[in-house]
Write a structure and sequence with these properties.
two-stranded antiparallel ribbon
Length: about 290
Amino acid sequence: MAKDNEGNDISADEILLLHPGDMGSALGAVWRSLGHRVYWLPEGRNAASHQRAEAADLTACTLAQARGRCSLIVSVCPPHAARELAQRTIGDGYRGTYLDANAVSPTASAAIGEMVTRAGATYVDGGIIGPPPRDGAAARLYLSGAAAASLAPRLQGGRLTVHALEGGPTRASALKMAFAAWNKGLLALLADVHALADAHDVLAPLRDEWAALDPDVRSREGRMLAATLKAWRWEGEMHEIADTFKESGLPDAFHRGAAEVYRRLGAFKDAAAAPALEEVNRALRGDP
């Protein structure tokens, strides 16, 4: 019998996790620790995915097997792939619940939800805030939609807190977009400002001004450098955020620019460690 954080019994689920990336595998490990059985699809996945799935104690299966076994499918993938992944996974005849926990705009989430419900499944909108929930780090998973309240307590445990939001069916995605607009958009701006100052040889005095007037900026420098390793994924997220601003009647150009910053930093995807600031500045200027 699965248990929640307070030790109360909860019904165990069989969950298909798409896919065991850095965040997905950490979520899968949390749900395994709660007593749920968590499956993944090994076909076409690389060696790193296999290693993460094994470390999280996930069970390999085929898509056909998962559709027959799993009452819940959770999608955690780059935002540009969210719609196609849902369409390919749901197929015909799945009657369980599909949780899209990707960084997509509310409009994109609504479109995925319409496709899922039209196929006969139940749709839950989700948004993840925070780092992968492991090694002392904690994350929050926000859910919205009619089934959010019943699903939330079954997924919460360990370093993962799950909140069901009342109201509109895509509020979780809206919250994720607003949070990431500031959090990740700010890091993109910081990287761009560093490169600008470096191009004009005023980076040292700029840092002196920050140290005197806004020391928090210097403290974010390490996070900005670490963010370059995820730039390939965050480019698409910035476009989703920009779409959300535009659909809300707000200026969207800032986050289109942030997407371009992360596009230029995408080459750091497979780096073993965060690059030096000089490398980031060169990449943003397009220098070899």
